[in-house]
Amino acid sequence: MKIMVAVKRVIDYAVKIRVKSDKTGVEMNNVKMSMNPFCEIALEEALRIKEAGFATEVIAVSMGPSQCIDTLRTGLAMGADRAIHVDTSTSSSSSSATTTLNPLSVAKLLKKLVDLEKPGLLILGKQAIDDDCNQTGQMVAGLLKWPQGTFASKVILDKEKQVATVEREVDGGLETLCLDLPAVITTDLRLNQPRYATLPNIMKAKSKVIKKVTLEELGVEIKPDLEIVQVTEPPKRKAGVIVSSVDELIDKLKNEAHVI
Amino acid sequence: MASLMILKSLKKQRSFSSLSPITSSISRFVSTLILGEHEGGQLKQSSLCAVAAAGAISADNSISLLLAGSGPSLQQAASHAASIHPSISQVLVADSDKLSHPLAEPWAELVRLVQQKGRYSHIIAASSSFGKNTLPRAAALLDVSPITDVIEISGPQLFVRPIYAGNALSTVRYTGVDPCLLTIRSTSFPVPHISSDSKSDAAPVSQVDLSTFSEDILDKSRYLKLTSQDTERPDLGSARIVVTGGRGLKSAENFKLMEKLAEKLGAAVGATRAAVDAGFVPNELQVGQTGKIVAPELYMAFGVSGAIQHLAGMRDSKVIVAVNKDADSPIFQVADYGLVADLFDVIPELLEKLPEKK
């Protein structure tokens, strides 16, 4: 069985983002970029499943401009066997230099790649920390008509029965589902602790294959049905006060804020 | 409450005059389907928030509520929903064994089926784990882009949602075909308190015809169990006061202090990721970008540093109190009242001096 893992290149989670003054978006120039943390967890899980003998190959895929190759190299250094880069920068219909992909388009592209590669499991992060959408996994599962195990905190595969038992983080606690393979799984933070790529593995990753495909080759038409009107900073909170004692705190809460 | 009255009168107006001035001024007819969640024969509060959001799309909005499940608790929830909110004009009930657990696979099929018949302009669910799981799948089946975690509705096609862990707000216009699918952040659409007898005439309840329910996908996922923490305290998502502990509490044992404080205040207990990862508390208490989003009247953070990911989950609280030993903690930049002190001194003192709740 092959496992396909979708990874996204996003602004590093520790960076304090800046909104552009013309309100068109967030400043991306000279900002540290990394693999989305949830995608790292997805890749780690795929590698563990392979190491446990349930899978033969782990394929990392990423979509976007050419810099996504760096993200894929990171994935290869962690242990993915090969990678596919869906290049959106060379799109012939380049109205703008960067074709922005929304989750629906990513899901359609992923479906195409799944049709070509035929993995038994597709693992994604539960959300990207930039757009915070939390949609792609569910959408590709819907398009493929595969069952979905979202927000997974535990995945157990049964090779014999070809099922995955998935423990999910839901509002009231933990829910356990049993999914027939092939299936789509999206990862929550608690699923695992991703490994670091060691130097020898980083060196080895340089010789692994990253296959480049274009939107045209996949035959998926990107038609955005969402337009970003503006991006603004959230309203600032007014400056607070530092109180000196518990008595003062209780007094303020009672007589100034009227919340207790 | 006033807006509800207006809604009600507008609805009456429409039923009496065939061409209401309001409908003609809007280019298209707005009708909304809400994916309702129910528990123990009651409609969940978050689904009522979705009704409030539907009211914000257009005053002249025909709102249908879809409930699914099986057996008597579903029927009970349906009759509860029919009379709980004056702007719900119809309750649709899908009763099937396949829907007895809120799985995304049958639910997404159900939404497609109901949309085929109802031709709604909008479909809304709360941004709960159910809504986030189900709505994008339904959107893919309908070939439209959904919009996650809407916090403000500026027009029938214009929405505001947070991105980058709430560090930026994005205004998006939906330019696709109907329906427009949204999940809404419940804390941004509060529901005025409505007593269940405020409406004398209950909305009609009708059964969804499931004879064409496509079943080929439905057996591919099976529900096994739900393990939940039983708690008598208010629900974290809707509590008026939330007390949260971070890594500073040092142990699960010490976290009991938070529970005592919560009891005294009638508050819900929250936690940071650090506290959850260290095993102090179960993960459903996590507040933040990847956990629950809360916006209570009072949020008290003890031993919480205030990482970006945590602030994302609580920055819309009305009053924020921070207690931390480290005066340089980022949490103090968002706190209305800060106290630089050892929480192990502060909490016992608070327990002693806080007024008894009525």
From TrEMBL, chain A:
Q: Name one GO cellular component term.
A: mitochondrial matrix
- What does the record list as GO biological process? amino acid catabolic process; fatty acid beta-oxidation using acyl-CoA dehydrogenase
The residue ranges crossing the membrane are: none
Give the GO molecular function terms. Answer: electron transfer activity
- Give the keywords, sorted: Electron transport, Mitochondrion, Transport
Q: Which InterPro entries match?
A: ET-Flavoprotein_bsu_CS (IPR000049), ETF_a/b_N (IPR014730), ETF_b (IPR012255), ETF_beta_N (IPR033948), Rossmann-like_a/b/a_fold (IPR014729)
Family affiliation = Belongs to the ETF beta-subunit/FixA family.
In UniProt terms, what function does this protein have? Answer: The electron transfer flavoprotein serves as a specific electron acceptor for several dehydrogenases, including five acyl-CoA dehydrogenases, glutaryl-CoA and sarcosine dehydrogenase. It transfers the electrons to the main mitochondrial respiratory chain via ETF-ubiquinone oxidoreductase (ETF dehydrogenase).
Identification of the protein by name = Electron transfer flavoprotein subunit beta
Q: Which organism is it from?
A: Aquilegia coerulea
From TrEMBL, chain B:
Entry-linked CDD domains: ETF_alpha (cd01715)
Concerning SUPFAM superfamilies, the annotation shows: Adenine nucleotide alpha hydrolases-like, DHS-like NAD/FAD-binding domain
Lipid metabolism as UniProt keyword:
no
Sites where the protein binds FAD:
247, 272-273, 286-290, 303-310, 324
The record ties this protein, via Pfam families, to: ETF, ETF_alpha
Which PROSITE patterns has this protein been placed in?
ETF_ALPHA
Would you tell me the Gene Ontology cellular component terms? Answer: mitochondrial matrix
The record's GO molecular-function terms, alphabetically, read: electron transfer activity; flavin adenine dinucleotide binding
Q: Recite the UniProt cofactor note for this protein.
A: Binds 1 FAD per dimer.
Enumerate the cofactors the protein uses: FAD
| UniProt-annotated location(s) | Mitochondrion matrix
Statement: the UniProt record of this protein carries the keyword Transit peptide: yes
Q: What GO terms describe the biological role, i.e. biological process, of this protein?
A: fatty acid beta-oxidation using acyl-CoA dehydrogenase
Give the UniProt keywords, A-Z. Electron transport, FAD, Flavoprotein, Mitochondrion, Transit peptide, Transport
Q: Any idea where the Electron transfer flavoprotein alpha/beta-subunit N-terminal domain is?
A: 32-217
The record's principal subcellular location, in a coarse class, is: mitochondrion
What function does this protein fulfil?
The electron transfer flavoprotein serves as a specific electron acceptor for several dehydrogenases, including five acyl-CoA dehydrogenases, glutaryl-CoA and sarcosine dehydrogenase. It transfers the electrons to the main mitochondrial respiratory chain via ETF-ubiquinone oxidoreductase (ETF dehydrogenase).
Oligomeric state and interaction partners are given as: Heterodimer of an alpha and a beta subunit.
Q: Which family does it belong to?
A: Belongs to the ETF alpha-subunit/FixB family.
PANTHER family assigned: ELECTRON TRANSFER FLAVOPROTEIN ALPHA, ELECTRON TRANSFER FLAVOPROTEIN SUBUNIT ALPHA, MITOCHONDRIAL
User: What is the designated name of this protein?
Assistant: Electron transfer flavoprotein subunit alpha
Supply the source organism for this entry.
Answer: Aquilegia coerulea
